[in-house]
Fold these 3 entries.
Entry 1:
Amino acid sequence: QVQFVESGGGLVQPGGSLRLSCAASGNLFRFVAMAWYRQGPGSQRELVAAISSGDRTYYADSVKGRFTISRENAKNTAYLQMNNLRPDDTAVYYCNGGPGMVVPEPSRLFGSWGQGTQVTVSS
């Protein structure tokens, strides 16, 4: 089974930036779509951004223009650059991947959900 390990979270003030990393195991990374998800306090997990194997991207409306997803296949790693962070971006951020045109198909995700990385936006 593919494993994903998220890192890069932390405490940041409103308007600040963070860059999250997602390291994947195995040899399938370059062939699958990757995505970042988040789960805020008392909320369900939601899709934030996705990137296809061919670098096509998708963003939730709430993060368009502020977040950028990217991938580096040589390092089996996906990234999420988050700028102009707001308090409502506070959440645990997770990554996962699998088959999909841009967004991984929810029923075919490769990895189990890990611990994620906590992002807290507060002054």
Note: The chain has a mean pLDDT of 95.
Entry 2:
Amino acid sequence: VQLQASGGGLVQPGGSLRLSCTASGGPFRNYVMGWYREAPGKQRELVAAISTGGTMKDYGDSVKGRFTISRDNAKNTVYLQMNSLKPEDTAVYYCNRPPNWLLRRTFEYTSWGQGTLVTVSS
């Protein structure tokens, strides 16, 4: 399956962005999906994950209450709505699919698609 993330850009602190990740080449509705980010000098971390049907969601501690993950299985797309953005949210954001829900935080991916850069700055 191929994953394409988009929607990044430059935004001021306190602003909002919505990222999209569209999948092709596989049964998207069967995939757990996750958003991850990598900031300069930091390890890649889970931002948010969503189960196949969207009933379970998990968020990184630093984004809880500000970010919302959702999915539209008819459009093969997962979204990340980011509100109240902070400079420390600056990173390249990636989407990927762990093999199952339990591995959403720990799975060691062998490949990553092209992420989308989010820059939060005044």
Note: The chain has a mean pLDDT of 95.
Entry 3:
Amino acid sequence: QVQLVESGGGLMQAGGSLRLSCAASGRTFSTYAVGWFRQAPGKEHEFVAAISWSSDTTYYADSVKGRFTISRNNAKNTMYLQMNSLKPEDTAVYYCAARKTGIVTGPQLYDYWGQGTQVTVSS
């Protein structure tokens, strides 16, 4: 069982930066692939980024590539999403998620989810 708790969301002006954190409980977290998703009002979960358990593989949505960076620290059971050059269209609730095998983009393929953290970007 893995429990995930996100933090670091908030209100930011366009062009600014935020770093989201996802703290995990469970001794096997280091063996899980993890990802970030976001959900804007009235829309479905959108894949943002994912990272393999060893950090040797990362994958990004085209909409955030070059602006967002995903990373993890298995010793601290924590995953991060550094968000730079924020845009108003990045406004959403951001969720971290984990799964036992390789990274994928479909939210339905992730087994564990956090409660989400709100990110609001003003123009």
Note: Residues 6 and 22 are 4 Å apart (CA to CA).
